[in-house]
Amino acid sequence: MNLENILTGETDGAVYSIGAVARMVDIPASTLRAWEERYALISPARSEGSQRLYSRAQVEQLRFVKAQIDAGASAADAHRLLAQEVHAGRPPVATDPAGGPRALVLIAERDPYAAELAEHFLRTEGYDVAVALDATHARQLFHQRAPNLVLVDLLVSGNAGFRLVDEFASAGPAQVLAVSAVDSGEEAIRLGAAAFLRKPLEALRLVATVRDLINAGGPVRTSRRQPARA
């Protein structure tokens, strides 16, 4: 798969790191690398720094393989079944895990209108949402509220979003979803983002990516509530 197509959103939009994919499909990263070399069927794009960058379609294919193995198939048989589905024009579609407690998403966005839209889409899907329109406020909310996922516009407060990705990914355990109107996916993944989306954000793609990452993070933690205002 072409790296430029993935980073510019010309495939299925989202870009996931191998660490995020390993958590999402519950398969060790070492196994994902071994399957890639042995079966040459699910081959993620590579960044200039040789980082593996998976598309959402590839995540769904890996979920299909995992489901076949869980049902008793060998890895070779599971990949053979996947190849048959793909060649027949029936790309497997993963079933989203059942939802749990309400997760908190922190949005660090430079554009108030874009932040309002993203907040609306995510609240409609049942998530709690906190919004910061600059890097300083984003840091405050991150430490005050302990979000399950942080959506970071890489150009918030100038280019401060890159620093936020690095800080939040290092602090953990929140998942970090980087977004940008420019081709910055490779750098965001290198800094620790679990996934990257190219703006403008499409509602269904945004919600699906957020759900993927939050479900991959395990049981939803109870986030700290913002203190009541006097």
Largest sheet features: 8 strands, mixed
User: What is the highest CATH level, the class of the largest domain?
Assistant: Alpha Beta
* Strand and helix order: HEHHEEHHEHEHEHEHEH
CATH H-level homologous superfamily name of the largest domain: Response regulator
In angstroms, what separates the terminal alpha carbons?
Answer: 54 Å
- CATH level-3 fold name of the largest domain: Rossmann fold
Number of strands: 8
What is the residue-mean pLDDT, rounded to a whole number?
Answer: 84
CATH architectural arrangement of the largest domain: 3-Layer(aba) Sandwich
State the secondary-structure class. Answer: alpha/beta
How much of the residues is beta strand, in percent? 15-25%
Low-confidence stretches: 1-11, 94-100
Q: How many individual domains?
A: 2
Question: What would you say this structure looks like, in words?
Answer:
By secondary structure, the protein is an alpha/beta fold. It folds into 2 domains: 3-87, Multidrug-efflux Transporter Regulator, Chain: A, Domain 2; 104-216, Response regulator (Rossmann fold), CATH 3.40.50. The chain is 47% helix and 15% strand. It has helices at 3-7, 18-25, 29-39, 56-70, 75-87, 112-124, 135-145, 160-171, 185-191, 203-216; strands at 14-17, 45-46, 52-55, 104-108, 128-132, 149-153, 175-180, 195-198. It has an 8-stranded mixed beta sheet, sandwiched between helices. A hairpin with a 5-residue loop joins strand 2 (45-46) and strand 3 (52-55). The chain is elongated and about 50 Å long. It starts with a helix and ends in a 14-residue tail after the last helix.
